[in-house]
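I am still getting used to backbone structure tokens and would like to learn alongside you. Label the sequence line and the structure token line clearly, so we can match residues to local backbone shapes. Would you write everything just below, so we can both look at the same thing?
***
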Amino acid sequence: MIAILGAGESGVGAALLAKAKGLDVFVSDSGEIKPVYQQKLQAADIPFESGTHDSLRILAASEIIKSPGIPDKAALIQQAKANNIPVISEIEFASRYSNAKFICITGTNGKTTTTLLTYHLLKSAGLNVGLAGNIGESLAEKVIIDEYDYYVVELSSFQLDGMFQFKAHIGILLNITPDHLDRYEYSMAKYAQSKLRINQNMTPADYFIYNTDDKLINEYFDSAAFKGQLIPFSIENQWQAKAYYSNSKLITNYNSTEEHIDTSSSVLIGKHNQYNTAAAVLAAKLTGVSSENISQALVTFKNADHRLQTVGEANGVCYINDSKATNVEAVWYALDGITQPIVWIAGGVDKGNDYTTLHALAKEKIKALICLGVDNKKLFESFTGVIPVIDETQSMEEAIQKSNTLAQSGEVVLLSPACASFDLFNNYEHRGRRFAEAVEQIVLAPLKQ
């Protein structure tokens, strides 16, 4: 019997795949299972429990598939490992039932954008490609039919931790910066090794695309021991890279043939998106997509919501929703990519942030900071003397009203919080939607009357 812990997208997908393959499966979630997932389990005649864990039944399993959100230090997981019960991720389980090639993307920042862009480049070129993983779609449910030649899969470190035999054909590592360290005993080395599992089991027929400008990748990646093909990309050092930039041209030379790809019409802004684009383009080139097709597809790409998403413009002021920027590194990328003066909305649940890395950009670009959170003391202390105007609120509507008063034509109002959202909002999506709604109601709607 296979026990599945967690009945969200990945857990229910794994259960449906197990059932389709004739396996005995049981689903357990200590929280309340959403009705849509209960209905899927009931329709497939899969036994489940909601709001509790039957530890005896779970520990009788031959294998456990664990939700990424459940930490390894959880008592039930520790018991399973003590009993020598394998504990794996949904991605590991799903990969057993597909002959497709996996293009897998991880990194502290930029995963979702790079995943969506890679998928878009391949799909626009006519390749038979599916999208799955941390992006919010279950790989396991997709491989029940397994109709694709390629899967583009976003992977979090938590998913990678439960992957052992899995092998990516193309693995992408964008960057490594401090995040989720509470899950890794506050060890950067352990967190970095988790991210580097993206290239495990690779053979000489496989490719590892990685950011050679990233200090921690260089520190922890043992390239000499790696058995696949190395495809480094860079902005800063063209001599070591298989892709680099010259003005708005992305130059690739991974196969000794230099090609120039025009990225000037891409909707993605900022230095971090140059890295994301380079990685996605290299993956597309490795699957045979032409430079012409790539250039055309860059123009039609639409990024996910809440990632440097323009939600409106009024009186010459642009309103940008970057609610997904829940750490300092992500905010740095946003500030670096915007050239206009900024009214910055930030705050929420602090994750042990060190804001000093933002000081130089803040002095250069930010005219005002609106702190949006229950406790804004740390933001005030960090940016007093750095940003000339600092105010606070616990209301998104008031944050927009204050920003609207401060911003002038040719400037940007940027929601880029650097913090988790759970003090005032359900999640970063909720926060981003509230920002867009407030901009519409307070700024845009009066202009339409």
About this structure: Residues 92-300 form a domain with the UDP-N-acetylmuramoyl-L-alanine:D-glutamate ligase fold (CATH 3.40.1190.10). The two ends are 63 Å apart (CA to CA). The mean pLDDT is 94. Residues 266 and 298 are 5 Å apart (CA to CA).
